[in-house]
Amino acid sequence: MFLLNHIRNFYDRFEHHISSFFLFAGFLFDTLTLKRVDALFENLSILGYLLIIGVFITLTHLKETEAGGERNPGTAHFWYVNILQFAFGGVFSAYLVLYFRSADFFVAWPFILLLVAIFIANEFLKKHYVRLSFQISLFFLSIYWFAIFLVPVVMHRIGTWVFLFSGLVSLLVIALFNKILFNFIKDKFAQSKKLILLLISGIFILVNFLYFTNLIPPIPLSLKDAGIYHSIEKNSNANERNYEVSYEDRDWKEYFILYPDFQATPGSAVYAFSAIFSPKNLNINILHEWQHWDLVEGEWTTERLIKLPVIGGRDGGFRTFSARTNLASGKWRVNVKTEQGQIIGRLRFNIVPAEVEPELKTKIK
Questions:
Q1: What residue ranges are annotated as transmembrane (predicted)?
Q2: At a CB cut-off of 8 Å and minimum separation 6, what does 353 contact?
């Protein structure tokens, strides 16, 4: 009893510090270990989290517990709630890492910030974990976001219909879970049924809104490398073909400029390079959309749309490029996107006319 009181007092005193530590440690672990959305380890770890969540939602509500039991280490309810919160933190941490790597932050920032907010809020919402409707709504969101990148990996396809099928799979899974849960806690489930249906419907509508407004990153694709160069030449070694690129040497401060200067001589070419990771057997076409900022109209105008093939499976991403010559001065951007219009990445630069070619450096891609 003395030990339990000591643990309770320690936990009450340092609860937020403990939560913050595990928040940081879990995110760091996922950052270092989660590499590919099609890797067995990544998918098994997320499936493990989802299984734990389903089991402990059920255990948490199998019997009533005294008020404040979620803060008492001497009760099973305390451990159920803490394990549940830890599992939700783990799965949202994994999503944050995988989704953040899959798009330009300046394009998908509303979705990414939403994910960050959910991830952080998870650490401070412990008292809500005793509420069935709250648990099931977060569980559905976890399942839905997992299906969004797992279904394309399994089907070797991406697109609107694949996304809609992911939503259907998620609804079927949560419906099956709710049916199983109803058999264990009929009375409590019946009391929360309307709110559960309302929350699931709201989440489903929100995720679809984010997708059709191109705010969800195009998982399972990701931009591994990209850049604007003065030249790109193919060479080869014993193992694979490489690309030698030439670029302007810049001061470190210039890397923080959103539209860095690109000195272009008359007739010179500008090369847009991109390395797109796609899972094995998921071969697609991407687009390089060259856009110029029209100072008169005050909007971006598309100058050229170039289709490029991407073959899935390469760890460093499938490398390809497009080129343009005689670009007008001013701000330019190259949107690297799917044929469905989802932005994978964006290259920005500012054309500055020059009479003499600038001093260039080279590197291998």
A1: 16-34, 40-59, 79-100, 106-125, 132-155, 161-182, 194-212
A2: 263, 264, 265, 266, 329
- Average pLDDT of the segment spanning 291-304: 93
Q: What is the CA radius of gyration of the chain?
A: 25
Quick one: what percent of the chain has pLDDT higher than 70? 80
Q: How far is CA 64 from the centre of its chain?
A: 37
**For residue 83, what are the contacts with CB-CB under 8 A and spacing of at least 6?**
52, 56
Query: Mean pLDDT in the chain?
Result: 82
- Is 287 within 8 Å of 343 (Cβ atoms)? no
Global model pTM greater than 0.85: no
Domains of the chain, by residue range, sit at 2-212, 222-364
Q: Which residue has the higher pLDDT, 41 or 153?
A: 153
Distance of CA 327 to the CA centre of its chain: 34
CATH number of 222-364: 2.60.40.1930
